[in-house]
Amino acid sequence: MLAAILVNGLVLSGIYGMLALGFALTYGVARILNLAHTAFYMAAAYALFFFLGLMGFAPAALLSALLVLGLALLAYWFFLEPLKEYEATVLIVTIALALLLQEVALLLFGGHFRSVPALLPGFVEILGVRVAQQALLALLFAGGVLLLAWAFLKGTRLGLSIRAAAQDQEAAELLGISLSRAGYWAVGLGALLAALAGLAVAPMATLEPHMWMPPLLVVLAAVVLGGLGSLPGALLGALVLAFAEVTVVNLVPGGAFLRTAVALLILVLVLVLRPEGLFGASFAEER
Amino acid sequence: MGRIGTAVLWAVALLLGSGVSAQTLRIGVVGPMAFVQGEHTWYGATLAAEEINRAGGVQIGNQRYRIELIRVDTNEMTSVTDAATAVERAITAQRVDFLVGGFRSEAVLAMTEVAADYRKIFIITGAALDGLLAGRVDRNYERFKYLFRVSPNKSSDLARTSLLLAGEVIQAVRQQLGIPRPRVAILAERAAWADPLVETAGRLFAAPPPQGYGAEVVGTWRPSATATDVTPELTAIQRAGAQVIFTVLSGPVGVPFGRDWGRLRIPAAPVGINVEAQQETWLRATDNLGTYVATLNSLAPGVAITPRTIPFISTFQARFRQFPIYTASGAYGAIHILAEALTRAGTTNVDAVVRALEATDYTGPTGRIVFDRTHDVTWGPGYTTGLGVQWVGGRMQAFWPRNWQVEGRVVSYAGVRPYQLPPWVVEAWRR
């Protein structure tokens, strides 16, 4: 059972981690709590499904990622940047954006369940646990993407300015960093991470217009657990929640439906003991 | 043209106009139209209405009425309130005379309350909850006598059939793999309708024959009906050593189940209820990984439950290029049943039509439909029971009933083939 928890938990962590990092980046730098984040993930998965009917996997994936990136930057330019001082309004606008994407998917593809063929069919056994090869591929892909994102943020001047904006906006502005430019980069990078997560998950997921809702809850929880705006915190939050879910299914099979609820309970307990999350600044300080 | 001529023309136009409106029956077809369940409700009703209109319409007393269908999108998948509002709008603004359809039990519960308020006949064709009729029609007849159900069989009857299907598969494991006491895992979505089925299945599987199946229940897993990943559940089932998985899944979770089960080649044969696997889109939805999944269904290609089954399937496929799901055959039957009841009643008076509907004995594509005292469709041999179907060789094929011995008779349909255990289950467990 321990092996099952370890292997399944790790695979799930990779997916949650990719989504959570993009979300944390968008909030940390652009100060936008983007509830449409997982809708971008859905849009990428549907775009991949559509383009695969016209071309091979690599160009279809590239086009899908670019489409979502363009969509996110347009949304930021049109709706979010002008409103970003008004947090509640931004929140509502992002929800509206997510619902709009959902309805567009419903209109274009209907309510039917769709699937994207796996790049790597079959499974392998790790510690006696069956794992789909596609899931391992997604995990490797997630790991690679996260490392690249990390290298970009840590090793480039642009990454430095994005991180500086995430840590202290006033100080960053005093040092000559354009918050607007950093915002565009953060939103773009966040949406790209969401799109890449969508591309990685699409061959294992069931595509339907409401598929953005369940991961949104988990991503929000992971980001709050890790500490709002903290990038390593978001990854750690994703890891904790993924392992919590898998542990519940294995230890309490009759309560498998409670997997998300238990994960959220852990979040509440952590916040009671450490309100700022595992890696974050306190809420009072944030304000 | 003189004044008299104009007046005559107006009079003729008025007469014609009033004649047309008086000879039209407006039937509201309700369902989630963006989803296959609603879409097929509409298709099934359309097919029946076209047949009836082509044959001259519905004879009621001395008049013939044409059927006009009104498409009522309930959005019930996401909002029960939307569903109730849609039905109210159909009754008050679109002036429908009768209602047919509905899919989600929670939404149908709300929609039928509205229908009862307005004393409109509502024939349910998609929702299974027992309590939609039981406890309402029998206990408060005057309010709820307008409600009937043509399909599917109610939840407790679906449970009976699904347990019979599980018995077939357990027997196949016992006989073909030489395992005297097969191990069964129960995978049931967390929903009210599934609870009694889980409890009954657990008892029946473990009880010794002839009352029970003499199997061992290795555990019960209850994922959410909307879970998008059941890999941890399947991994746990595999490690528990199950040879059979009894599924009770009506929600979208059925698709990730089929996909993950096939991808991981879990050595346990799935059987039971999986609503997603009843649909023609199953293999596409699961990337062809859902092969060998078995489920309860209403229709299967090439299986003539009644003389009307094959003509219905053929006409439906020719017209809509899809294999009909149960909401299609349900709506098709409901429109014919309503038309026949109206003819028998000889009037559109609602109480007379209710009485005529109560006397229904109609043989449709899925079986013989006779309403019980709660206005529900009767289950059993000679009535409607459903079929056991399995995905083999890229198509859905029926495996039950095949030599089903019940009440001193043997029930079998032409075109029903033996159940096939998935090859990797055979490979893993053959002794």
UniProtKB/TrEMBL annotation, chain A:
The keyword Cell membrane applies. Keywords: Amino-acid transport, Cell membrane, Membrane, Transmembrane, Transmembrane helix, Transport. GO terms for cellular component: plasma membrane. GO terms for biological process: amino acid transport. The keyword Acetylation does not apply. GO terms for molecular function: transmembrane transporter activity. It is a multi-pass membrane protein. It holds the Pfam family BPD_transp_2. Its main location: membrane. It is found in: Cell membrane. The chain crosses the membrane at residues 6-25, 32-54, 60-79, 91-111, 131-153, 184-205, 217-244, 256-273. Belongs to the binding-protein-dependent transport system permease family. LivHM subfamily. This is Branched-chain amino acid ABC transporter permease. It comes from Thermus thermamylovorans.
